[in-house]
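Inputs:
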Amino acid sequence: MKAILFHSHGGPEVLQYTDFPAPEPTPGEVQVRLRAAALNRADLWVREGWPGLKLEYPHIPGADGAGEVSSLGEGVSDLKIGDRVVINSSISCGKCSHCLAGKDNLCSEWHLLGETIRGTYAEYVVVPAVNLLPLPQSIDYEGAAAASLVFHTAWHSLITRGRLGEGESVLVVGASGGVNTASIQVAKYVGAKVYVVGSSPEKLALAESLGADELIDRSKEENWAKVVYLATERQGVDVVVDNVGAGTMPLSLRAARKGGRILTVGNTGGPKFEIDNRYIFGKHLSVLGSTMGTHTDYATVMGLVFEGKLKPVLDRQFPLKEAAAAQERLATGQQMGKITLGI
Ligand code: ZN
């Protein structure tokens, strides 16, 4: 098969478009002929590497993908060859105490597809059958791949962890990234009032088109926490979604109301920052972290995507062989929505 792979960490130049043997399914697994993959910021971090990350080389990046079932492992009976499917990239063992309790995202042998195991920048991938959802004709491969990880992540964070409900207020820090555009839509879907802090008028216009109620341009409002505070009758918001981290978390703590919740699933601005602990205990804040979500979350949120109630935001599609250029675009931060690969 054709695949994008790398043999060592580095910049986009380490990505090679080449031939590699297609993976074969073992019992309980399914081989998918991929038609689209979507990029995530984690793809860049895996390519660059971090201390302690151990990969089996060559490594194939990519968490998100959609395509057709091309081969079935022993014991798989609920799918057939040719079925259109989308991949849940949160891979769990199905046997440990967390998995048996329905918290498969806490699995003791958890993997993210394309992070620690070979992923979707390829013509074929193999995943457990439980990680596939049949795709209705109403959604194409590109949209399904683009929706998958970000809506799964946003739903688990805002709803399962954050218990966001109707009538609550939520501040989303960042206007145009994949998880943020998904978070805005999920928050609106459950009836929350959505504030968005963005870095440019274009990105805020995107947030507004997704239903955001109040827009704050942080290129003009350096102390955006104060703007939120004043806009909420000096109360602050019930929930802050902060997946930027360095540079924003101190202000996010200030923007939350007493008893509020801070949700985080990542840190596109950097993982290490100083915080003033007095905001956490003094305001009775809860800081709720998570990564990805459960199989139940996935089925729930993708059902809403299939019904058109939540919509993937698409930036540009590149052919598979131009994955390096696609990753370079992602690294610039200029994209508005998801960058995808056509396979
Ligand atoms: Zn497990």
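The radius of gyration is 20 Å. Flag for discussion at group meeting.
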